[in-house]
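Re: [help] complex structure
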Amino acid sequence: MTTADDTRTRILAAARELFAERGYAATSLADIAAAVGLTKTAVAYHFHPKDRLAAEILSPAADDMLALLDAGHESRDDFVEALVGFAVRYRSVIRLFMEDLAGDDSVSPVSPGSERAVIRTYRDEIFTKLVGEDPGAETRLKGWALLGALQWGTVKTMDLPEDQVRAAMLESARAIWQDPRGG
Amino acid sequence: MTTADDTRTRILAAARELFAERGYAATSLADIAAAVGLTKTAVAYHFHPKDRLAAEILSPAADDMLALLDAGHESRDDFVEALVGFAVRYRSVIRLFMEDLAGDDSVSPVSPGSERAVIRTYRDEIFTKLVGEDPGAETRLKGWALLGALQWGTVKTMDLPEDQVRAAMLESARAIWQDPRGG
DNA sequence: GGCCGTCCAGTACGGTCGTACAGGACATAC
DNA sequence: GTATGTCCTGTACGACCGTACTGGACGGCC
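Output below.
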């Protein structure tokens, strides 16, 4: 029980790291297994479909995102601040999160009926909260720019403490939305 | 000659589009072939290693990036503006470009001795021009945030005219660097 | 002792990938 | 008409992927 729990968490940790570095598709079960010192069948034993590994890694972030969406935000700035906090807090899995969020609907149906597809249903809601309904061209662009900045800014600064990343990221995120001519 | 040239450009166009949507690794030769109405062997005939397809697609952008790096920029703002112009102009291939640029060095050696790895040598130069040498934590984060905003902002607004994207993108890019407390 | 469930390795299977090779349709040159 | 080169298909190969199945090592329980 204890030992098995250990390997489970070790697998999760290794997978989280590899997924963050290479992305979901580019990380094989054999890679994860090698990082933990097991065979790929052992990994498959603990997480039967590969999707479940990602689902379990994503699970706490997904829950928090749901709570974040349900919470009322007075202004868009408030929502942006909450979004930045979310991205920084879950920066180790945000690449995985974004892969589901921004993936093409046409390609790779995320495995037919997979649980990972759940996140994709968030997308419209997140994006609507961010840019409003039926946004203009410029607003839509800024929405994606913000999401891109959030992902890369957090992923590429894993070595920095969370507080520092959040402060800097918040500044950049607000700057994107700010009307430079005074708004 | 004419017909063969046609299929070559048609393959390039389809590949450019699919690479932009799904990324390099997630796009198979069969996918590209299906989009053009050929078999994957026909595609392989025109572009012998798959790398060459990406290399040929990336080639003009790579040349322009070299020119951009060689050109003298008075201020960092000037360089940022040039960078935004580059990203918008080559938005159809910027995802491919970024894949090479930001890829992990450890994983997937981009095919041993591949030509695609050339772009990766740009990275240090681009990043240094962007954030200076030995940048602080916040500056480094903003650099990556800018690159992320550039990529997503341009890729996800393919339906908008170039001028509009450039104007909005330039605004966001400058905002990221702006010191909100007046700088 | 025997029994059973957990944890993991070994093996094998179907599928997809990029690629190599052989052959055919077709136009052009001689 | 025959030869030559280009353009493309069909087939096949090895490598890798995720997964199913079998079996063995180990520990707790009766």
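Residues 28-30, 40-41, 44, 48-50 of chain A lie near DNA strand D (CB under 10 Å from a C1').
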